[in-house]
Amino acid sequence: SRGLGDVYKRQAPFLSRPISVHKWEPETQTVEFLYQVIGEGTHKIAQLKTGDTFQLTGPMGNGFDIPALAEQYHKIAVVGGGIGTAPMYQLTRELAAGGVKPDVFFGFRDKPYCMEEYRSIANSVKVSTDTGAVGFHGFVTQLYDPADYDVVLVCGPTVMMKNAARLCAEKGTPCFVSLEKKMACGIGACLGCTCETRSGEGKSVCKNGPVFDAAEVF
Predict the structure, then answer these.
(1) How far apart are alpha carbons 47 and 44 in whole angstroms?
(2) pLDDT tier at 4 (50, 70, 90 boundaries)?
(3) Contacts of 133 (CB under 8 A, 6+ apart)
(4) Spatial distance between the Cα atoms of 98 and 89, rounded to a whole number of angstroms
């Protein structure tokens, strides 16, 4: 057993890490990821050097339906919190390319990051911080009124997404959220990332999501 334990330690982490795409460049065929170094998996990713290789599976699941959003809605709010802002750059860029520049509202604990690149693709950009170090001192959900928008697209901490969904429901504004869950298989087989829906049916975030209608999951 000691030998097997040693093998596991050398190969750990065994499971892949679900990370959203921050930026996709078709011309150069490159993908960029924005992630926070927290556990063993992200520490190992951060240690990769130029020339190193790793296995990448994807894209998987169902993201924001950008063609449908750009066609159906004219005033769109993109709302992100912390590292939940990571997938919102590609979303904002594709919405802008589809003819709808959204308003971007991002909340951070202390210091914002990767914000300048939004200036050319967003209609407006507003930032809040928990500490008040930069931008508005408060919650990101205080930066906008859902009634001013045709739809609100959200990714961030669960408590923030729940508050955003509640405010949207009060104003009758559609809201779509990108959930975060620990995922093992990534194909909906292990059911480890199941979330409960309003109908009582459990759905895998990796396969059926991560993007859901907020009214369905909150």
Answers:
(1) 5
(2) low
(3) 110, 111
(4) 14
Q: 39-57 pLDDT, tens per residue?
A: 888 888 899 999 998 888 8
Task: Report the alpha-carbon distance of residue 92 to residue 31 in Å, rounded.
Answer: 16
Q: What is the mean pLDDT of the chain?
A: 91
CB 206 within 8 A of CB 185: yes
Residue tagged 């339906």 (tokens): 65
Sheet holding 175-178, edge to edge: 136-137, 124-129, 103-108, 76-81, 151-155, 175-178, 211-213
CB neighbours of residue 32 within 10 Å: 12
Q: Where are the alpha helices (DSSP H) in 88-204?
A: 88-97, 158-171
Residue in the structure block whose two tokens are 């959204």? 102
Res. 10: pLDDT tops 70: no
For residues 72 and 41, which has the higher predicted lDDT (pLDDT)?
72
Q: In the chain, what are the helix, strand and coil shares in percent, each to the nearest 5?
A: 30, 20, 45
Name the token pair of 142: 């205080």
